[in-house]
Fold this sequence. Notes:
The two termini are about 40 Å apart. This protein has 12 helices and no strands. By secondary structure, the protein is an all-alpha fold. It is elongated, with a radius of gyration of 24 Å. It has 2 domains: about 5-80; about 90-320, no CATH class.
Amino acid sequence: MKQEQFIAAHEADWRRLEAWLATTAADDSTRAPAEEFAALYREACQQLALARARLYSRHLINRLDRLVLQAHQILYGERRHLMKDIATYIVHGFPAAVRSQWRLVLVAALLFYVPLVGMLTVIQMDPDMVYTVLDGDTLRQLEYMYDPDNRESVGRDRDRQSDSDLMMFGFYVKNNTGIGFRTFASGLLFGIGTLLVVLFNGLYIGAAAGHLTQLGYTETFWSFVVGHSALELNAIVLSGAAGLRLGLALLSPGRRTRLRALREESRIALQLVYGAAGMFILAAMVEAFWSPATWLPATSKYVAGGALWLAVLAYFVFGGRRAP
Length: 324
């Protein structure tokens, strides 16, 4: 690649890095550099090595050398405050990342919620449709779990031991995060894997909900799931959006190599995945300690579940609009 082409390809990144350096120099606080700053620094290091190997002009090498040196001093010279970084991500970074990827989030939401609601509705009109998704053994297990006559199987009476809650919390964390990881990682199959996983989860959950509703197990089922549904279901959607981001990088890398496109786009996708993982963990807490509580009236659970849905949606719409 000629030097002029090299400069044209990377000038925009260098200017962004210079802007970060100028901003940081004007601010003497010890706040940790943003993720984009670290990514630009790593790319500048690679580009400096290429410029030297290709014997580009001394002026260009000196410019890159200066950028790398200044960025290195900022990136590794400051003390990182982990808790502050996490708080900044939760308050600002995560909701901002979701809004920045709203198109993929919308696509993933449609892929998930349309089959879910559609299957739930169809089963009310034709109960046998449930067998297109679930087998007999799975249905029998669900029926036993949510049968009002077996309420203790899904409920939590006053004598239930706290270690049982903790055990179920661990199970839910493993199960929920496993779903999220499969949904995200399957995006490496050019996005097709994520698309299929999201569709299947929507159909599966819709079939289960539709079957139990059609049987009349409404209160035992819906009062159990409503509390954690806002966190768990939307975490699946966000994992799907992250997986689609990987798939697009492979399908349409632009002028980049597929490997470079995947590396760059994965940084964006991970901003969604980290938050989705946190939502899965919070959902597991609700599912283990709140949802099974039979001493709580169903109305209280419905109200709390509705409030949590509103809170989650408001968080993504309004959260992080002010700079941290």
